[in-house]
Amino acid sequence: MQSLLRNVCRAGNRGAAARLLEFAAPVATQPPSSAIKHLRPCGFTPPTGLDQFLCVQNRFISRDGVPASSGFCAKVLMTRGLSTVGTAEVAEDEDDSSSPAVEHPPRIKFKRPDKTARHIMNILNKEAVEKVRTEREIPDVQPGCIIQMRLQVPENKRRESTLKGIVIARRNAGINTTFRLRRLVAGVGVESVFPLYSPNIKEMKILDRKKVRRAKLYYLRDRMNALKK
Amino acid sequence: ILWVSLHEQIRTFIQMRTNLKVVDNSGAKRVMCIQSLRGKKGARLGDMIIGSVKEAQPRGKVKKGDVVYGVVVRAAMKKGRSDGSEVQFDDNAIVIVNNKGELIGTRVFGPVPHELRKKKHLKILALAEHIV
C-alpha cells in the first residue's frame, strides 16, 4: 500500500494515479497516516498540492467502509482532489521551467525530475558552446581535414607552438567535443586529442580537406605516408 | 596492444618483458623492461624503468646483457595533460640513465614530451630535437 502510494506520488499522471488509487482504495485497510509519515522523509518532497492530495486521500480512505463501493467513490473524490493538485503542480512547474529561460508552451503538467535535469544539462551545454563560439571562430573540423593550429601551453616554456596534422577522429559531446590529430614529429608519429573549445587553442586553420569515407581514420596508423600525416 | 572494439586500439603500460627502443647514443638498441620503478601496473610516460639490454651496438657505453635504468620518453599509451588534451606516440622508447637519473648518452633522438620537465629530467629536454 505504501509502495502504491509512492508510485502514485511519482507517477503524478492523472490517469495512472486514478488507476492506482482504484486499486489502492480496496487494499487500504491500514491507517494511511502511517503511510504518509513514511512518505514524508523520502527525498522526493511532494509540493504542497500533493500534501493536500494525500490528506484528501487520507480523509476519504479513512471514511471507507466497504471496499467495493469505495472504489467508485475513490475515483470521484480523487479526481476532485487531483484537480487542485494539478493547478499546484503546474505553478511549481513554471517556476522550474523559467530558470533555464526557455518556454515550453504545451508542457506536461507534472514535473519529472530526471527529465528536467537532463534537459537543463543540454541547455547548459548549448549555452557554453555558444559562448565560446562567439568569442573565437572555430572552423568545422571533420575527419580528413588537414589542420594547422597554434597552441599555447602554459606548462611548456615557450608558448605558441604550431602543430600541423590530419584529423583522424572527432567526438561530439557538447562542450567537450574533442578531435584527434595525427602528425609526424621528427620522424615519429604522434597522436593528440584536443578539446575543440579549449582556450589554449589560439588559432585553427584548415589547409586541406581530404575525401574520406569514414568517421574514424584509424587505418592511417598502419599506412605511414611519406607526406602529410 | 589491446583491442576493445574493432576500431579502438588501447595501448597499456610498460611492464615486465616489454621491448623498448633506445633513442640515445649510449650504444644499446633494444632494451627489455624487467621492472617498472613506478606504479603497480607498469610504467607510463616519464617514468623510470629497469631494463636488460637485448641488442647493442658493437662499440658503445653499454653492452648486451647489462642491467640499466631508463626513462620512458615515448609511450604508446596515452597520457593526459592538465588542459584536457592527451598525447600518445607510435612506439615505446627510453633513454638510458644511471640510477641517479643522469644521462649516459650524449644525444637524444626523436620527440620528447614536456612531461619530463615536471619529472625533473631537464637534461633530456635540453638535448631533445623536438618537444611535443
TrEMBL record, chain A:
Keywords noted in UniProt: Ribonucleoprotein, Ribosomal protein
Gene3D superfamilies documented for this protein: 2.30.30.790
Pfam families hit by this protein: Ribosomal_L19
Coiled-coil parts of chain: none
Location of the region described as Disordered in the Swiss-Prot/TrEMBL record: 88-107
Family per similarity comment: Belongs to the bacterial ribosomal protein bL19 family.
This protein's name: 50S ribosomal protein L19, chloroplastic
Lineage of origin: Eukaryota, Viridiplantae, Streptophyta, Embryophyta, Tracheophyta
From TrEMBL, chain B:
Top-level taxon: Eukaryota
GO molecular function per UniProt: large ribosomal subunit rRNA binding; structural constituent of ribosome
InterPro entries registered for this protein in UniProt: Ribosomal_uL14 (IPR000218), Ribosomal_uL14_bac-type (IPR005745), Ribosomal_uL14_CS (IPR019972), Ribosomal_uL14_sf (IPR036853)
SUPFAM superfamilies: Ribosomal protein L14
Single GO BP term: translation
A GO CC term attached to the entry: mitochondrial large ribosomal subunit
UniProt KW rRNA-binding keyword: yes
A Pfam short name: Ribosomal_L14
The entry's keywords: Ribonucleoprotein, Ribosomal protein, RNA-binding, rRNA-binding
Family to which the UniProt record says this protein belongs: Belongs to the universal ribosomal protein uL14 family.
Protein's name in the database: 50S ribosomal protein L14, chloroplastic
Organism: Aegilops tauschii subsp. strangulata (Goatgrass)
